[in-house]
Each structure stands twice: as structure tokens, then as C-alpha cells.
Amino acid sequence: MTRFHRRAASAVAGPEPGTVSLAALVQRFLPHMLEQGSGAILTAQGASTLHGLPNMSGSGPAQAAQRNYLQSLHAEVAGRGVYVGMLCIGALIEGSAFHAHAEQARAAGGRDWGPSVDPAYLADLLWAMHNSTGEPEATYPAERPTFGAAGGADDR
To answer: Contact, 148 vs 112, CB < 8 A?
Structure first.
């Protein structure tokens, strides 16, 4: 069984552990935030949250479920002093292990995985979201990234 098929099978078998963990954390901390009338719940997911991507059929739908949950939660707590937001990242995070792997592959003539971003910039975006009462979602980059030709599991 390939890595792709294992991810797809786990997505069909039950909820992504991240979705369950997110709900458990919200259940633990949201009541206190509402009682205090302040707080923020912020998450960051990959681009497959918004758009289906090759080789992401396992985690993408689970992240989309988190997005739906957060959108609903944002609407439920609106006007009660708690902000719920999500940052969707369609770029490689500089300094990460995957970024290093992708840069090595690109240098060797492999797949172009798209833009990269400094993690400090993402932190600034999340901080700005935390301090807002506006939209529940932000994306980086603002437009849908164009990824190289769809590749197989070996392109990772």
C-alpha cells in the first residue's frame, strides 16, 4: 500500500486526528474565553484546505472539515469578544524540513512546489488576525498559488 493510499484510507476510516484535537481544544478553552469576553482561536492549514491538490487526498478533506468547523464557530461566537480565524498557507515555509527537501529537488531539476514564505511573516499575519474582529480567513499568498506539474508520491 502506497503512502497515498494509506492517507486516503485513513481519511475514509474516520476523522483526521487534527480535527478531533482541534475540537477537543476548543471545548477545553472556549468556555473560559466566552466567560471572559475575550480571546482568539487561530489555526493554520495548507492550501489543500481551500483547493484539491495532487497527492493531498488524505489530509485535504480533513483540513476542509476543520475549515467548516471554524467558519461555523466564528459565526456562533460573533459579537461575544472571541475571534475565530484560520490562515491558509499555499507556500513552503522557509526553514522547514519540507522546504529543504523541495529546494534540493528543484535544484536537481525536480518539481517546482511553488512560492516560499518566511515564518516570521506568517506569525505577523496571525498576530494581525488575532487583533482583528474581521474576516475569519486569510490566505498566503493572497491568490491561489500555481504549483508545478502534478507529480507522484516520489516527488515529495
So the answer is: yes
Burial 55-87 (b: 16+ CB within 10 A, else e): bbbbbbbbbbbbbebbeebbeebeeeebbbbbb
What's the pLDDT tens digit per position in 3-61?
433 343 344 344 455 667 888 899 999 999 999 999 999 998 887 777 666 666 667 77
Query: Quick one: 3-147 is in which CATH superfamily?
Result: NAD(P)-binding Rossmann-like Domain (3.40.50.720)
- Whether 53 and 151 have beta carbons less than 8 Å apart is answered as no
Dihedral over alpha carbons 86, 22, 30, 124 (to 10 degrees): -30
